[in-house]
Model the fold of this input.
Amino acid sequence: MKTPRKVIYDNQIELRLMSAKDGPAIYQGVCESLPELKRFMKWSHFESDLNQACSIYAEFEAKSLRGEEITFAGFDANTGEFLLCCTLFPGSRLNPLAFEIGYWVSSTKTGRGIGTLAAKMLTALAFSEYQANRVSVVCNLENLQSLKVIEKAGFQLEGTLRNYLPQPTSEMLASGYSSVTDAHVFSLVLEDIPSLAWFREFNKKMSVMRFG
Done:
């Protein structure tokens, strides 16, 4: 995958590659969101300090620059406030034009439609920049907020993946992790785009900044 330097939507949200440079803002967002993250994100159960977190963010940046997967940190384009993290990554071993998206929104910024905007941005990026013919998203059955995002972005339910998610440890369960291991899988395919109500106008308002 060719890696964009940043993606901006309508002077509202700026997605830029996750990096140690933005580490303090991202780390603060993680810390503020831990109760919600621990419900569905396995990685949030591993303790880290700022230095360790910045090392992880640097690894994500390296992966993005290699085109293995692209992880963004999202910021308010006007105030510079940290909003979310999101990732576009390969969605199939067999189809190089299939992608999957993932996202989480800082708990202090929920309820503002930010998750939906990010999902649409990644979807538009996949279809318009990477010639995707499929974009999917997988969601824990209990993650109602994420399910609303998926629905608003127009994804279609394909089915339920049984035992798709990791079996939580007793420590994870005690910290609030969901006991559900089944997940819904949703997708959009290239043939869906002409009838996707938001796509054309949304895409016109999105700018992709490249390196060089």
The chain has one domain: 4-210. The mean pLDDT is 96. DSSP finds six helices and nine strands in the chain. The first helix runs from residue 23 to 40.
